[in-house]
Amino acid sequence: LEENALEGNIPSSLGHLSLLKTLSLSGNRLRGPIPPSFGNFKNLLSISLARNYLTGPIPPSFKTFLQLQSLDLSFNSLSGMIPDFLGQFHNLTYIDMSNNQLSGHIPISMLNLANVQDLSLNHNQLTGTIPEQIESLKSLTSLSLSANRFIGHIPVSISRLQNLCSIDLSDNFFMDGIASFFTNMTSLQKVKLSNNKLKFDLSEIKLPDGVSSVDLHSNQLIGSLSRILNNRTSNFLEVLDVSGNQISGGIPEFIEGLSLKELNIGGNKIAGHIPSSISNLIELESLDVSRNHITGTIPTSLGLLKNLQWLDLSINGLTGKIP
Taking all residues of the chain, what is their mean pLDDT, rounded to a whole number? Predict the structure, then answer.
C-alpha cells in the first residue's frame, strides 16, 4: 500500500493478516501509534512504515518479528528508546530508523546483529558514546549515525569493520584524533565526519586505497594539505571537503592523474598562491578556496578547467586582473 494518500491511524484489524511476510505502508499520511496488533505478524520478513506521521514508541509487540530481515521506520515522529529486543532479530540485514525522535543510547543488544549490512540511525536524539562492541557488526557496509548527540571518542573498533564502504558520523560531538583510523578499512569509499570537534593533524591522515569522498569540514583540524592531495590514495579521491578548520601552509602542486571533482578548502589559514598546476585537475567541477590568506594573481590555467561549474575565491588577498 505504499506511496498512496492513506490517512488516519493504522487500523488494529490489519493484525488479523497473521500470515503476512511483507508489509509496506510507506509514503502515506498515516498518523498515531503503531497498533499492538502488529505482534500477530510472526512470519514477517520485511516491514516498512517510512515517510508517515507515526508517533509514540516502537511497540513491545514488535518482539515477535523473529524472522525479520528488513526494518524501515524512517521519517516519522517515533520517540522513546531503541528497544533491547531488536538484538534478537538475528536475520536482520537492513535497519533504517533515521529521521525520528528516538533518544537514549544505542542498546548493546543491537551489536549482536552480525548480519546487518545497512544501519541508519541518523537524525534522532541519541546520546552517549558509540559502543566499542560495534566491531561485532561484521557484515556492515553502511553506517550512518549523523545528526545525533553522540560524544566522546570514535571507537578504534570501527576500524575493524572490514566490509564498511560508507560511514557518516557528522553533526555530533566527537573529539580527538583519527589520523591513522581508516588505514585498514580496505572497502571504505565514503567518509563523512564533518561538524564535530575532531582534533588531528591532516598531514598525518592515512586513507586506504579506493576512498572517493572525504568530508571533514567544520572540525578543529591542523596541518597542511600536501599529503592528503599528493599520495598514492589521492588518485581515487573525487570529493574532499576540509573547509572550516585551522589548516595552514600552502596549496600544493597538483600532479596529473587526480580524479578530484569537488575541492573545498575554504575557511582555513592557507596562505601562498594558487598553483598553475591546478589545471591538472581536469575533472574538477567545484573549487572553493574562499576565506583564507591566499595572495598573488588568479592563474590563467583556471580557464583550462572545462568542467568547472562553481568557483569561489572570495575573501583572500588576490591581486592583479581577472584572466
Answer: 93
Domains 1-168 and 175-181+200-323 share a fold: yes
Here the cell at position 165 is 564502504
Q: Residue 155 corresponds to which cell in the numbers above?
A: 571507537
Handedness of CA 31, 26, 79, 43 (dihedral sign): positive
**One-letter amino acid of 126:** L
CB half-sphere exposure, 75, CA atoms < 13 A: 11
Fold of 1-168: 3.80.10
> 205 with 177: CB under 8 angstroms?
no
Cα angle, residue 205 at apex, residues 202 and 208 outer, rounded to 5°: 145
What fold is seen in the domain 175-181+200-323?
3.80.10
Q: What is the pLDDT of residues 278-293, one digit of tens each?
A: 999 999 999 999 999 9
Considering the entire predicted model, what is its pTM? Answer: 0.92
pLDDT in tens, 65-78: 999 999 999 999 99
φ/ψ of 153, rounded to 5, equals: -90, 150
Domain ranges of the chain: 1-168, 175-181+200-323
Residues 83 and 63 sit within 8 Å (Cβ to Cβ)? yes
- Sheet containing strand 149-152, edge to edge, reads 7-9, 29-32, 53-56, 77-81, 101-104, 125-128, 149-152, 173-174
Euclidean distance between CA atoms 153 and 141, whole angstroms: 21
Element (H, E) at 228: helix 226-229
C-alpha cell at 23: 508489509
Please name which of 204, 289, 176, 183 lies closest in space to residue 193, comparing C-alpha atoms: 176
Strands (E), 82-198: 94-96, 101-104, 118-120, 125-128, 142-144, 149-152, 166-168, 173-174, 190-192
